[in-house]
């Protein structure tokens, strides 16, 4: 399984990662969402290089141009709710994609432990499709795992690109182990060392869903 980590290279992508981490910039939720969207756009561009392409003749006002263009559209499958701005960024470039949504949230008990609950799924057939499974945070990896298993009820993709912005080392290992024999590629913005006792990524960014959409009760 191939893993690509964007902030290991120098590019403007790293400024967007830095901004979503920065508490002085996190006060602007529109900028937070838009930075996530912009990273989704950059990732879509890089992922598109892996797609099948073929030559196509295009009629211009002055003649015919041959361009090598993508021949297949993905299904973009995102985990609610923090996945929404990343989904939009991917969709801005893969603008003919089909779309799927899975709800996953941490349900806490009195002891402070939590389970991941999946209650909603909306998806086209995934049989033999290229699927982009997106969620900005990959902490323990459980949400990705359960969302993927739920999506399998909608068909078996031929390739899955997991797209995440901030991951923990433990989460990356968990996902790499889970998908080691599968046609899966892991695209990550940055990998952080730690998970704290509440399974938040450290230094991370905090709660991505709350930063994008406000706190919930
Ligand atoms: O890898 P994991 O340990 O499963 O954690 C990552 C999950 O946590 C966040 O969602 P959250 O439960 O905060 O829901 P939200 O998007 O509604 O805020 C995030 O968007 C992932 O889905
Ligand atoms: O660090 C984390 C972990 C899970 N979900 C988040 O939003 N942030
Ligand atoms: Mg959250």
TrEMBL record:
Domain Phosphoribosyltransferase intervals: 14-214
| Cofactor(s) named in the record | Mg(2+)
Its UniProt entry gives the catalysed reaction(s) as: UMP + diphosphate = 5-phospho-alpha-D-ribose 1-diphosphate + uracil
Q: Name one Pfam family in it.
A: UPRTase
Please give one Gene Ontology molecular function term for this protein.
GTP binding
* Organism superkingdom: Bacteria
Assigned protein family: Belongs to the UPRTase family.
In terms of NCBIfam families, this protein maps to:
PRK00129.1
- Function statement: Catalyzes the conversion of uracil and 5-phospho-alpha-D-ribose 1-diphosphate (PRPP) to UMP and diphosphate.
Q: What is this protein called?
A: Uracil phosphoribosyltransferase
Query: Species name for this entry?
Result: Carboxylicivirga sediminis
Give me the gene this protein comes from. Answer: upp
